[in-house]
Write a structure and sequence with these properties.
Layout lengths: L1 H19 L2 H18 L5 H12 L7 H15 L21 H8 L7 H14 L5 H7 L8 H14 L5 H8 L7 H14 L5 H13 L3 H14 L6
Length: 238
């Protein structure tokens, strides 16, 4: 009981800072919000977690880009508090039934934000908020595969790989276009997403990844291609 009361009091205090402070105070409060909610957890503090996420969502329209970044990051930390599985390459499963559908709609509005950092984190948020195969989310993600910022393209192709379902040939073709990107990190993310959206055992996809594993200039990309081939040949599955 004491822990629950403390959590509610903490949320009330953070809400006051978010609504009444300057931009730096709002940013700091949102960063604390994400950490606090991860610590309390969603099992015993489900109501508090929902209120905390709603508070962060209410800040997505803030006039300061640093506050918008912090709000998006807090949402990600609260919705998917354990972003990696034992394999180290997958986001943790998200219970979409606990997520208000309007949250995703609010995040989608930030994808064309003028600030590259907001766009990048918004793409990461879409990856955890959208349900697999969400056509609206995929349509919104597609333009960002050609963003002028490397980090945004990287986040976009990773998000597509999280949302699209395996065997979607059109999406696989879009992702394949980034396998030759100038940026190493973008190519690495594209390799992982290409494996996720390609059909298991797809000979063409496996051949493409084998060529990358042999010829790419970056050792991390080559290593990612080897892991991606294992995924498509049904080896190393978690």
């Amino acid at each position: 009981m004491a822990a629950s009361i403390d959590a509610k009091e903490s949320l009330a205090a953070l809400q006051e800072k978010v609504t009444g402070g300057d931009w730096d105070a709002r940013r700091a409060a949102l960063e604390t919000l994400g950490r606090r909610s991860c610590d309390t957890g969603s099992d015993s503090q489900g109501d508090n977690l929902g209120s905390a996420v709603a508070l962060a969502v209410s800040c997505l329209g803030d006039m300061d880009c640093h506050v918008r970044r912090a709000a998006l990051t807090a949402i990600i930390r609260m919705v998917a508090p354990a972003p990696k599985t034992a394999r180290g390459d997958d986001v943790a499963p998200v219970e979409h039934k606990t997520i208000d559908s309007s949250y995703l709609e609010r995040v989608l509005l930030l994808l064309p934000d003028e600030d590259w950092g907001v766009r990048r984190i918004a793409l990461n948020a879409v990856a955890v908020l959208a349900e697999p195969g969400d056509a609206q989310a995929l349509e919104a993600l597609e333009p960002h595969l050609s963003d002028t910022d490397d980090d945004v393209r990287c986040a976009a192709v990773a998000a597509v790989g999280r949302v699209a379902q395996a065997g979607n040939a059109d999406i696989a073709t879009l992702v394949a276009g980034l396998l030759d990107d100038d940026d190493d990190d973008v190519r690495k993310a594209a390799v992982g997403s290409y494996a996720r959206v390609s059909q298991l055992g797809d000979d063409g996809a496996i051949m493409r990844l084998r060529d990358i594993a042999r010829r790419d200039d970056d050792p991390d990309v080559r290593s990612a291609a080897v892991s991606a081939m294992a995924r498509l040949t049904n080896r190393g599955q978690a």
